[in-house]
Amino acid sequence: MNPVLIEVLRGSAVESCHAGALAIVDASGAVHTALGDVDRPVFPRSAVKLLQALPLVASGAADTFQLTDEELSLACASHSGEPAHVATAAGVLARLGLDASALECGTQWPGREPVLRAMVARGEVATPLHNNCSGKHSGFVCVACAMARNAGAEPAAFARGYVAADHPVMREVSAALSATTGVDVERAPRGIDGCSIPTFALPLRALALAFARAGTGQGLSDANARAARRLRQAAARAPFMVGGTDRFDTRVMQAFGERLFCKIGAEGVYCAALPELGLGVALKIDDGAARAAEAAMAAVAQELLRDEGALLRGYSHLPLRNWNGLDVGSLRPTAALQALGHARP
C-alpha cells in the first residue's frame, strides 16, 4: 500500500489524504528515494511530452523548419489554449504549408476560463489549435513533413494518420521513450491518450531514470542528449508556452530556469529533471488529484533544491479558501516528503 504523501486540512484537522508513490533516481539508475511501489506501471500521460518531443530535434526537423524556443517549448506543453499558444501552433503549421486541419489531437476549449468566456462572448468556436496538446502535435507534423521530404512523398498525405502506433512518426516517439526509460515500450501495457496517440504504462523508477538522463544527457545517444538539452533550454527561455498564466509548470520554470524542468500529466502524475543534481523525479498520486500532485512536486523541489522561497511553499502548503475568500484549510506534505533533502543515493 502506498504511503500518504499529501494531507488536506480543514481548520487544523485532517479532512482528506492523498496516497501515492515517488521515485528519484540518477542517470545510472541508482535510487535516491523510493516511496511506495515505484515498480508498478503507471500511464505517465502528458508528463512525458519532453521525451515525446525528442525526435522533433534529434531528427533534424526542428532545424529544417527553423523552430524557435517558443515553438519548441510549446512542443513540450500542456497549455491553457491562450492566444499566444494558439498563434504559435498555427505559425508552425503555416510554415509547413498546413493549417489546423492537419492536427489529429481533437478539438478542446481553452483551459483558462477568462479566455474561454471571451471566445464565447465573441461567438468564436474552439479548434484543434486550442487543444492543450496542439504544440506537441504540431511537432509531430513537423517530423512527418521532414520524413516526407526525405522520402520524396507529399507531406500532408504522409502526415495523415500520424497518431497511429504503426505510423513512422509514432514509431520514432516510441523508440525515444524506450531509449530514455530503458523499457521496451512495445512490451508495456498500452492505451490511447486524450490526444489520441499511444500511451504506455511504465514504472515510476523508469520514468525517473528517463528524466535524469534527459537532464544530464548520460545514457542517451548524442542526438537525444542534444535534443533533450535544447528542449529544456527552450522551456526555460519560454516557460509561458509550457503551461500558461498562473500554471505551476510555467511559474516554477520562470523562477528556476534550467535548474528544474517539470511537467504534469493527467491523473496525478508528475515528472521532473534537476540537471544540477543529476536527478530525475517521477510521482503518481493514487487517486489522480492534480492539486495533490502539484503539492507533492513542489515539496520535492523544495527539499532537493533546498529552496526556502514563497513560490514552492505556496503550492506544497496550498491555502484553501471558500467562496467568501475565508481561509478554511490547506494542503501539506507528509514527513516522508519533507525529509527528501537529507536523503542520499
TrEMBL record:
Pfam families assigned: Asparaginase_II
InterPro entries xref list: Asparaginase_II
Designated name of the protein: Asparaginase
Originating organism: Pelomonas lactea
